[in-house]
Structure formats: C-alpha cells, structure tokens
Write a structure and sequence with these properties.
The complex is a heterodimer. By secondary structure, chain A is α/β, with parallel strands linked by helices. Chain A is 50% helix and 14% strand. Chain A has 16 helices and 11 strands. Helix content of chain B is 77%, strand content 0%. Classes of the chains: A alpha/beta, B mainly alpha. At the A-B interface, helix 1, strand 2 and helix 8 of A face helix 4, helix 8, helix 11 and helix 13 of B.
C-alpha cells in the first residue's frame, strides 16, 4: 500500500524536523564567546545601504584587531515597528533607530538598557545626523521652494504616517518649527498651517521607504518630504532625470541614535564586540562611510570632500530646543488624542 | 461543449436539443465570454507575465545571480524547512480531525468544525499577533520561555507556528466532505469481518480518501510557502536568518533591487504554477473515483 508508506515517512520527517530544530534554536539564543560571533543590528528603513557597507568594513576591522570572525545580521523596517519588535522579544544586540523616543520606549518597557543610555556615546549617541528636505519632479514644475509652498491648494504632498514612522515625525516637526518661526510663535496659526499641509496629503504610507516608492515608482504627488539621505539615495538609485532635491530655508536636525542593549548582549556574550561596533561608527572610517551614504557625519574632516559637497548648508533646529525633547513632542503631538490626531481627523 | 452547438442554437429549438446553458443571443454570450477573458488577462495574466518580464529585464545572468545570493538561499532553505514541518503536521491533524468528525458522533462536534475554519476567517496579520500575545516576551508564556532559553518569536519555531495556523484547515476541509459522503458502511463491514481499528483505517478509510488528502496537502503546501502576513509579524525580518521567500521579496523591493525582487517573485510564481498543475491532475483523479 503506497500511501501507508508515504504517510509513515512524512510523519518521520516531521518528527526529525521538530527534533532537529530545537537544539539549533537554543544554541542561537545562547550564542558563544570564543570562536565566531554574530551580532544582530535592528535598524530603521533608510539605513539599509549604509549598514550593508559599514558591516563589511567592521567585520574586517574586528578580524584584524582580535582575530575573531564576526557576522552582523540586519533587520530593517519602520522605526516604530522595529522598536515594537525589540520590546516583544527580538534579541537585538544593538539598535540603530530613527529617533531617541523609540529607544526610550525600549528602555522603559523592557529594562534591557539603562534609561540614561543616550549619554553613553559622544554627540548624544548620534554618530551621524540628517535633515528633512523636499523631493520634487524634474524641473520643479510646481515651483516649490519652501515650506509655505506646500500648503497651496492643489499641491499633493507625500509623507509617511507620523504614528508609525520616525521620519514622518521629523517631517511634521520640521513643518511645525518653520510655521512657528513665520508666525512669531502663534500656535493657533501654526496649527492652521499644519492642518492645511496635511489636507494636501493624499496617502500616508507606514514607513519612509514606502513613501519614497509611492512618489518615485508610482509617480503619485508633487512633493515628497524625505530624509535628506533617503532623497539623495533615491536620486542615485532611481535616476536624476526624473526628480530633484529642494532644500527649504529652515529644517529640523534629525538625530538617529545608536545604542547597545546591554542585557541581550551580556546574555549572548557579545557585549565587547557590540560596544566596539558602535564605537567604530565614530571612527574616521565610520564617519567616511556615513557621509558616503548621505548621512551628515559628526566629524566632517574624516569624510571625502566630494561627499560633503552634496550637503547644502541650512539652519537646522533641534527637537530638544524647539519641542523640549522627544518625550514632550510625542506626548503633545503624536500620542492618541494629540495634535496630529485632531488635525488629521478634521481633514 | 462543441462550438457548433453554441453557434446554432436559435431560440425556438426544442430544449432537449439545446446544449447552450442560456437562451440568450450569441451577442450576449460572446460578450460575456469576452468580458471574462479580458478581465482574466488584465488582472491575472498580464501581472503574471510582468513578474517574469521584470525579473528578466537585465538578462538571464542577472536573473540567475539573484538566486545565488546567500540571503536568497537562506530564505529558500527556511521556506522549505517551514513547509516540511508545517505540512506533515497539518496532514496528521487534518486526517485525525476528519476521521473523528466524519465517522463518529460526539459532543461539541460542530464546535470543532467551526474552530477548524477559524484560520480562514481570521486575517493572517491577526493570527501573527495572537502568537505574539502568547509567546512574545511580554506575552503569557514569554518570561517562562525566556527563563528556559527558548526563543519562539522572531525565530524558526514562531514562523512554523504561524504557518501551521494559516494552513490548518486545508487538509481537513478537503477530506471531511468526502468522508461524510462515503459514510461508514465499509468500515463497519471491515470491523465485523475482524479487522482492527488501524487495519480499518489504513486499508479502507485512507485509500478511499487519498486523492482528497493529496489535494489538501498541495493546497496547504502552496499556502505555507507563500504566506506573508502572519509570518511577517513573527519573523523579525533578520536577513539570512528569519526571512522567508515572500519576506525576502519585500526586502529586495525596498532596497531598490527590483530585478532581484521580481526574480525571486517569479520563483514563487513558478511554485504556484507547479502547484496548480498538480492540483488539476489530482482533481481529475478525484473526479474519476
């Protein structure tokens, strides 16, 4: 009876697979000192290309320093979603996220790292910075020069959802900061400005990369609010013939921080290599690679001047000075029932 | 239906001779056919062709190179591993459940039937979150699992669990109706002739439903390989470790690597086409029995 045989063998395969998968997953969790070591870097959307090259550089650097083989695994996604995964148990050794708030959340909800994590590395744990710029169609047919051009009737603005995307929160706060300056701090007028701006948004993607593909690949919208690094990369990858960058008069200083998740790294025996990995971001080589991948390095003297020439000088205000820090900005603007909710619902 | 019959079916011919399904004029019939064919072409055939066209846009070499990338190979291995675990488990469960439901009467039977259908009714994303609530580090068993060094979420076991959940009903759903239709007379006869329970099952019940079982296995295999939503929630998206093939396609697409994304997507599409072929074959066997 052929079917009887195949049923028995299938059951055997199932059993083998189950038995076989258990030891491998437990050895994954414990990791090991000595020999080869793996690090898991949980990051946000637009850092894919940067870390892909940085990881190769660090791997050979670490091999030279210590003789140890290190493999760095990457996970990318919207910053809020990635933080959520770490909170739910994704065993990251280091996180390199878009905004400090998401790492604060990890610290508060899991205790995997101390709450004063941001003071552990230079420059508030931000080895590179960025800002928010506009991406428009070639030749800038709608004549978009600055933030106030975005609220004109009939302009379609593409930005991801501030509820799920770190980059989108920077977009929103940058527009808010600009409006506050224009209105001499009159918050009522600023709210009206932001309301008008979001009235011009036809679709909210969940992450920065999704918005870029909406704008560039699907050809929706007149202007994309984007990370400067994401905008420069999009022009490089998708052809300078279709799109160009407009740098507004003033924007926000985007500070994507990095940190080690102490408890995970200690449990897996990777604390030393994890710390060295993040230190290497501040090294001349790390700074050079950041600039190469369109991030503004903290120490520009290490970068290739040709890379630095791509960054336009502009005034960048900080979340700390303008909004009193991320906790405050989150509570007032993005929490449930916050300013963003009331603006978007009144749409 | 012969084409001639379609053409020569005037309205006043005695109904016994008319082979057409409707009495409507040829214009109506042909326009209906044209609409459904162009609808099929627009929404199924063209997108399917587009996947292969995009994947092959930079030639065969680039197309093939997409598969030799180590992350892609890891995704293939993981997808196969998950399928090889999930499908046999659902086969065993599906057979046991259908046997119990079709051949025996017991309390709570209709509840069991409803529960088997649950994964069809629940959105895959929700089923991913259900497992997160149960096995995630903040979930019910999270701290116990962590204390014992067992990683379920964001690792292979979680992906297997999510896949089992979404493919749960396929085998049972195919086999139950057939078993119910067949009734239990043959089994009763076997038992009165002195066959043991296992003998009855392997010699009577199983051979009677083998094509339906195979059909269910094929469907659940296809779904196991192609599942995105539930797996996306529990995977953690670690390249080379917890990315299955569908997740790998998304990663490639997000990295502007469109050729590779469509190449890998075409691999999934090929798997689907093979599945369809097998399904048609099994279907014809199923009907001839």
């Amino acid at each position: 009876m052929p079917l009887k045989l195949s049923l028995a063998s299938l059951a055997a395969v199932a059993l083998l697979a189950f038995v076989g998968c258990k030891p491998s997953s437990t050895s994954d969790a414990t990791g090991g000192q000595g020999g080869a070591v793996t690090l898991l870097n949980v990051s946000y959307d637009p850092t894919r290309e940067f870390y892909s090259e940085f990881n190769r550089s660090f791997t050979s650097h670490w091999k030279e320093e210590t003789g140890q083989d290190v493999t760095i695994e990457q996970s990318h996604g919207g910053a809020g979603k990635q933080a959520r995964a770490v909170i739910d148990g994704l065993k990251a050794d280091v996180v390199t996220l878009a905004i400090g708030y998401d790492i604060d959340e990890i610290a508060q909800r899991t205790g995997l790292l101390p709450t004063d994590w941001q003071s552990r590395l230079p420059h508030q744990s931000c080895p590179y910075t960025s800002t928010i710029v506009f991406l428009v169609r070639k030749g800038n047919p709608k004549g978009i020069r600055d933030w106030n051009d975005l609220v004109a009737p009939g302009i379609e603005v593409i930005t991801p959802n501030p509820k799920t995307s770190g980059g989108a929160r920077y977009n929103y706060l940058a527009a808010w900061g600009y409006a506050q300056r224009q209105n001499g701090g009159n918050e009522q007028q600023t709210r009206e400005f932001i309301t008008k701006l979001f009235r011009n948004v036809p679709v909210l993607d969940s992450g920065a990369r999704g918005s870029t593909t909406t704008f560039v690949q699907r050809g929706i919208g007149d202007v994309l609010l984007a990370w400067e690094n994401e905008a420069l990369l999009a022009i490089d990858e998708l052809g300078a013939g279709q799109i160009e960058i407009v740098v507004p008069s003033v924007s926000i200083l985007a500070e994507p921080p990095v940190t080690v998740l102490d408890k995970n790294a200690t449990a897996r025996g990777t604390l030393d290599v994890a710390n060295a990995y993040l230190q290497y971001l501040y090294s001349p080589e790390g700074q050079r690679l950041a600039a190469k991948h369109y991030y503004r390095p903290q120490e520009p003297e290490h970068a290739d001047p040709a890379d630095m020439a791509r960054f336009t000088k502009l005034e960048r205000f900080t979340v700390q000075d303008e909004f009193g820090g991320w906790q405050e900005a989150q509570r007032k603007h993005f929490a449930d029932g916050g300013v963003f909710d009331s603006i978007y619902q009144s749409k | 239906m012969p084409a001639a019959a379609v053409h020569s079916a005037p309205q006043n011919v005695p109904s016994a001779r008319v082979q057409a399904a409707t009495e409507d004029s040829p214009i109506v019939r042909w326009s209906l056919i044209a609409i459904s064919v162009s609808f099929m072409a627009l929404f199924v055939l063209i997108p399917l062709a587009a996947i292969f066209a995009e994947g092959l846009r930079k030639g065969w070499d680039t197309y093939l190179a997409s598969f030799t990338d180590s992350h892609c190979l890891a995704a293939v291995r993981l997808t196969l591993l998950v399928t090889v675990i999930a499908v046999p488990l659902n086969l065993v469960f599906g057979l046991a459940a259908s046997w119990a439901i079709a051949k025996f009467d017991f309390r709570g039977k209709s509840l069991l039937v409803t529960l088997i259908d649950l994964p069809f009714a629940v959105s895959p994303v929700v089923s991913g979150f259900i497992y997160m609530l149960v096995f995630g580090i903040q979930g019910w068993f999270g701290s116990w699992l962590a204390d014992h060094g067992i990683q379920v979420m964001f690792a292979v076991p979680g992906i297997v669990l999510a896949t089992i959940f979404v493919t749960f009903p396929f085998v049972a759903r195919e086999v139950i109706p057939l078993m119910q239709e067949q009734g239990s007379e043959e089994e009763q006869a076997a038992i009165t002739l002195g066959a043991s329970g296992w003998q009855t099952f392997f010699r009577i019940t199983l051979p009677n439903v083998k094509w339906a079982v195979l059909y269910g296995v094929i469907l659940s295999n296809a779904r196991a390989m192609g599942e995105f939503g539930a797996v996306s929630v529990v995977s953690g998206h670690i390249r080379g470790r917890t990315n299955t093939l569908p997740l790998h396609v998304e990663v490639l697409y997000n990295e502007y690597n469109f050729v590779a994304a469509f190449a890998v997507a075409s691999l999934l599409a090929l798997l689907a086409l093979v599945t369809l072929g097998l399904k048609t074959l099994v279907e014809s066997k199923l009907h001839s029995h």
